[in-house]
Amino acid sequence: MSPQPAAGPAARQPRVVAIGGGHGLAATLRAVRTYTDQATAVVSVADDGGSSGRLRELLHIIPPGDLRKCLVALAEPGSPLALAFEHRFTEAELAGHSLGNLILAGLMEVARDPIDALDEACRLLGVRGRVLPATVEPVVLKADALGGPVAGQVAVMATNDIRSVSLVPADPKAPAQVLAALEEADQIVLGPGSLFTSVLAAIAVPEIREGVNRSDARTVYVCNLRPQVPETEAFDVAMHLGALAAHGVSVDVALCDTSTLPLGNPGVPVVDVDLARPSGLAHDPVKLASALADLLG
User: Fold this and answer.
1) Which of 29, 41, 128, 190 could make a disulfide contact with 37, Cβ separation 3.0–4.6 Å?
2) Of 135, 130, 76, 124, which Cα lies nearest the Cα of 100?
3) DSSP structural state of residue 255
């Protein structure tokens, strides 16, 4: 009997960088983790509301809430610790805080380096991939709107007719680990999520915007399923892409579902597929994973 040939090396998994914040980025990460273990989340840290805002102001740390959501999204589904991270207290001084936010705050204080703290949280949760902040510097999101300038993420979320967003200070540094991930990426995914207060809040870090544009990876924009009132009221897909272009962001393809959001006249290639859960209120991770995996390369 002839000897069997030795098995070749396992195929390298695609390196995917997902950029944004909040529930939208978490939805992308749940999809991405199904086709690669090499996912890096780059998370906006402009949040100034709720538990994150309170901890940010009290402890002078980067806001943990969106980072927590991404950690949970990349953790093993059903992990008891990941479920506990999402537990939110309702009584006395702890009211409104999630356990995960408090753990991250403690890790950041002990580690002194937010990235070391997040790497330890990844280890504790068995995260497949890595979660990184867009910057470790304290930043404030600022919007130029038709009614005048608006400062602070919560205030910007309540604003319509937004022309552009930026950060104060205008040029915070991106972590070296983020820039390395962008340089090595096979695919970069922007969105879904709040266009101005999550996606562009992360892209507003100049080195991240430059890293995205310089990368050889295919950059995919995952469009929201519907307008977000008032932030993107009356927006269609083309208007989302126009806002990205106006902020200096180049994308190769947009992924959208025009059964829930009009297309308009986009200037980049579009893949129009069913992406929604049965409720129509959120992206289905299985459908999103299939569509994103098809766009690799």
Assistant:
1) 128
2) 124
3) E
Mean pLDDT across 9-17: 83
Residues in CB range of 100: below 8 A, 6 or more apart: 64, 68, 71, 72, 84, 85, 86, 87
Q: For position 224, which CATH number holds?
A: 3.40.50.10680
91: left (phi over 0), alpha (psi -120 to 50) or beta: beta
Decide if pLDDT at 1 tops 80: no
Which residue range is the domain that position 205 belongs to?
16-294
CB atoms within 10 A of CB 272: 16
The DSSP secondary-structure symbol of 264 reads -
What is the spatial distance between Cα 45 and Cα 34, in angstroms, rounded to a whole number? 26
9 belongs to a structural domain? no
Question: What does the pLDDT look like over 51-66, one tens digit per residue?
Answer: 999 999 999 999 999 9
pLDDT at 4 over 80: no
Q: Answer whether residue 6 is part of any domain.
A: no
